[in-house]
Design a protein that fits this description.
mainly alpha, about 45% helix
Length: about 110
């Protein structure tokens, strides 16, 4: 369980200390772009800029608490959608046999 601030703080901390991007062997263009991204993320954390956080969770494992319950949260938008073929493939669902498998196992 965490907050948006907690999530962004963890991402910021992990990325800021990533040696593959910020270390001595990183290319200067990569370092510069990444530094700009980290600075912008810091501005989001400090609420200096407006931003939208999108949680794309194709297996519906995320939970966002509505502090306005039972009224709708004016800042929260929930969209249900069908997973794409690629998302199902990544999850190993495209080749999953859910019908008739009992018959094959007795052969």
């Amino acid at each position: 369980f965490t907050t948006v601030e907690g999530l962004l703080s963890l991402i910021h901390s992990d990325l800021k200390n990533c040696p593959w991007i910020t270390g001595d062997s990183a290319h200067s263009n990569t370092k510069d772009s990444f530094t700009k991204f980290i600075d912008r993320l810091s501005e989001c954390l400090e609420l200096k800029i407006k931003f939208t956080l999108i949680l794309d969770d194709p297996v519906a494992n995320s939970y966002v608490q509505n502090l306005y319950w039972p009224k709708p949260d004016p800042a929260l938008k929930i969209e249900d959608y069908e997973r794409t073929y690629d998302q199902n493939e990544e999850l190993g669902l495209n080749d999953m046999k859910t019908e008739g498998y009992e018959i094959e196992s007795h052969k």
